[in-house]
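Example record

The entry below shows one chain as it appears in the dataset: sequence first, then structure tokens.
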Amino acid sequence: MKLSAPIYHLKRSAKRLAREEGIELHVALDRIASGEGFKSWSLLATKYQSSSSASKLYAGLKNGDMMLIGARPAQGKTLLALEIAVEAVKSGKRGMFFTLEYTEGEVLERLSSLGIEPSRLGAGFEFDCSDGICADHIISKARSAPTGTVIVIDYLQLLDQKREHPPLAEQVEALKSFAEKSGVAVVFISQIARSYDPSGKRSPDLSDVRLPNPLDLALFTKTHFLSNGPAHMSAAS
């Protein structure tokens, strides 16, 4: 499914259209959907959900996996990872979203932009926006999480932000050990170095991950990279 813009951008356009023309939001949404070749917004949203990368990525996750999702800014990596956590909830598992980037209000807004009503996720979905997020904090919060839980960390490089926290390598190793022992899957959102040149390489890879401090990238079992072109996903090597 190819849209002219990410679905959350289309929803923003509909909200702006509703304000500018004084029409109901559902009318504006249908008009935007029509421009994408759909008779209604509900049809567009249904088609999007069925073709979503998130559902495919979630289906490929195994207990104990360590997935890295990397992209330059504004490519939708955080929303994709958030969707994966939601997919876990839809499948009867638990989703946990730890973010050092978003506020609580912004997390709720992102969920809404994806067409997800946070209240309907119930106790199966939990998010944490506290400043003290690090491996120890995450493990403490997820210690009782059942097997199959998906933990999303937004984002990898920010774990290395505070001097009082252990080095990034130690934190990722601790999270990997926890994932393997508890049967959870951990999804890390990652920045890509500014040196990455899309004109020379269609999609980033592990060599393009921005690492302010050393980290063994072999700790990740799966990778998924986004760019302006088709996404590249694979088992980490």
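Notes for this example: The chain is about 40% helix and 15% strand. The longest strand covers residues 185-191.
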